[in-house]
Amino acid sequence: MRPEIWIGDVVRALEVARTEIEQAQVLELLGLTGGIPLTDPVVTPPTPPLPEPSPETAREEPDAEPDDEPPPRYDAEDRHETVDVTAELPLLQPVRIETTSPSREPVRPLARPTPERVPLPYTPLLVPGWTSAILRAMLSRQVCEGPVDIPALIDTLAHGRPVVRLPRRPVSTLRDGIQVLVDRGTGMQPFRRDQDQLVHRIRTVVGSGLVEVGYFADLPQRGTGPGARWTRTTYAPPDSGRCVLLLSDLGLGGRPDDPNRGTRPGWEEFVALVTRAGCGAVALSPYPPKRWPEWMTRLLPLVSWDRTTTAGRIKARLR
Question: CB–CB of 38/20 below 8 Å?
Fold first, then answer.
């Protein structure tokens, strides 16, 4: 029977052996040579791949021998390609060739919006070329200071009447000046730009020193003045002989239920006040004559403030 051998005995015996042969003999004597490797297995390192030849080297090498077998043939289905089914269809011949129309000019884009406020196009109610003649016909008064009226002088002499003063023909004048009353009420808000433009034109035609401008709301008796609402005072008629021009709708515009609208009694009071002062009044209304009530046309002369107004129509109306 083989005596018991411990692993420690094997380790001490292998330490004494010098070579691998001696170690094998020790293990054989101890009865431990049953397929146990004496050393670690040798691992062969992988062979590195050969470097690929560069393009220049490949060109220098001789051409490879041609392959006797033809290259494999792949169907369209194997390559997942789309077959053009129209390739075998006959090509149609054009019947005629038409020239294309010339291209239109490129559309220019709209300008970018800017914070600047651009005023809208403005067209005055009166024709600009006729405005000066309209103002003279409407604001001037007749004075007998023109040339000598020969027919009237002959008639006086023929009847044997004494010639106390030479008769003269009447002429129009603006030397007495005018008073312009601008209505800033609710009904006249759409026409404020026309009012300001016309006041500037009146000063140009008559003269700045002969024009008195007053602003009011709905009725002049409620306060009239050359500035803001809080600076207005009681209305006072101008000097005798001056013409009073109203730029107002006389209560036609605005809301019907507005309690501040000018009424018939209020305008009758105003006309009476101007008449007692020895002045004449005329109104320039932005509404057509078909909207003027009868009491308004009897109260004072009205002139339509639109493009149909001419100097000839005003002279015929104010006679």
Answer: yes
pLDDT, tens digit, 9 for 90 and up, residues 31-40: 776 544 544 4
pLDDT of residue 119: 74
Catalogue all structural domains in the chain, each as residue range(s) with its CATH number: 1-31 (no CATH), 128-318 (3.40.50)
Tokens of 239: 């000097």
Strands 141-143 and 171-173 turn out to be antiparallel
The residue with tokens 């297995």 is: 41
The Cα–Cα gap between 182 and 197 comes to: 12
Other CB atoms within 10 Å distance of the CB of residue 34: 6
pLDDT in tens, 62-80: 444 444 555 555 454 555 5
Amino acid at 148: V
Angle between helices 7-16 and 20-29 (to 10 degrees): 150
DSSP state of 224: B
